[in-house]
Specification:
8 helices, alpha/beta, globular
Amino acid sequence: MANYEKLIGGNRSFYERNADFKELAGGQKPEHIVVACSDSRVAPEIILNARLGELFVIRSAGEVIDDAELATIEYGVVHLGIKSIIMLAHTNCGAVAEAQKLLRESEAGKLHFDEKAANSKLDVMAYRIYKNIAGKSNNSVDSRSAALDNLMAQIKILEDYEPIRDAIKNGLRIISGMYDINTGRVELYV
């Protein structure tokens, strides 16, 4: 139970030393939506040194956007009036690495994934990323390029979703970025 006690102690320290949450109790007005990987090393609030309430964060393995993520992004854009979405990939992504394994299997003529079989959700996600990176040069060995190609496919999903497409016409910006696990640096591609 020591791990839970550490979390509760951390929360106590937060609410005793930080008044930001009191100011935000009446509502939120974040400046950016950040879509990032659920990797524990990629915490947008921390790596971007943001204060509580500045970011509206959506996280999923490999930044994969499905219905729940789209609905959350739509909420941020339509109901909170956010005008900026930062799609943030990262180096050393485990989800992309799984997709790269499928790509190498495919290149060797030994792809083990069967679209018609009962697959785990994790395998389906890796296969989806695989389809995003397949056919692009060097993606079976260059994880940074593979992560960026997957990110661009996720951005396309956003751009094709009508509420987001309409918001883009009214000034919404979608920006891609890469967080380097080894250096701690974020590079934005505006």
